[in-house]
Amino acid sequence: xxxxxxxxxxxxxxxxxxxxxxxxxxxxxxxxxxxxxxxxxxxxxxxxxxxxxxxxxxxxxxxxxxxxxxxxxxxxxxxxxxxxxxxxxxxxxxxxxxxxxxxxxxxxxxxxxxxxxxxxxxxxxxxxxxxxxxxxxxxxxxxxxxxxxxxxxxxxxxxxxxxxxxxxxxxxxxxxxxxxxxxxxxxxxxxxxxxxxxxxxxxxxxxxxxxxxxxxxxxxxxxxxxxxxxxxxxxxxxxxxxxxxxxxxxxxxxxxxxxxxxxxx
Length: 265
What we know:
The protein is an alpha+beta fold. The chain has seven helices and eight strands, in the order H-H-E-E-H-H-H-E-H-E-E-E-H-E-E. Strand 7 (about 240-250) and strand 8 form a beta hairpin.
C-alpha cells in the first residue's frame, strides 16, 4: 500500500491532481481507519495511470466517469477510435504545416541565391487543377481550397501559378491556374501536367505588382529575352510566375516572384 505522496512522486503527478481524481470518483483508494490517511493499492495506481492516459487524449472528465461506470468494450473501442482519427488528422495537418515551413525556408534560400541572377534548372512537375481569372479574384478562392492541400481554412498563394505567354512582339496571353505539386508523371492523374525539363530560373522583386500600374509581365518578358539573347537560349514563349515570399521592411512591401521560363533544348 502507498500513501498519496508516494504515488504522486513515482507517477509524476501532483497531490492536487490525485485529490481531484478522488473527488470525481476516478480513483477510490481506501481510507485507513486509524489515521484517516488514504492508501493506494496496485489497482488504484492502475486507475490513476489509465485516467492520465484518457486525459492526455483530451477526453473530458464526465466521459471518463462514464467509461468507469458503464461503458462496454465496444463503446470504449468506438470512443478511442474517434480519438485516434482526430489524432491522425492532426498529425496529417502538422505534416502539411511542416511541409509549408520547409517550402518557405527553401524560398528564402533561393531568394538569397538567385535574386537578380539566374540558373538553368528543371521546373518541378505541376498538375493543373483548375483556372481562376486573377490572383485577386477572391470570390474564386473556394475552388483553391477544394483542389489543394490547405492549412485549415487558409488560402496558400503558392498553389497558384500565373502563366504569361509572349512572342517576339511582346506579351500575348496571361492567366492564373491552380496547381498541385506531384512527384512523378507516371502515375495516372486527372488534369494536365506541366513538365519542363529545362528552364531559365530566377527570382525577381516587384512591389505591388498586381495593381496594373507596375505589372510584372512586361518586365519579366524583357528580362528573359535579354538573358536569352546574351546566352544563346531560345525561350519557348511562356513563363510561370509564383509568389515566393511577401514581406515588409520598414513599412515597404517586398514581393519576391519565382520565375520558370522554359527554353528549347
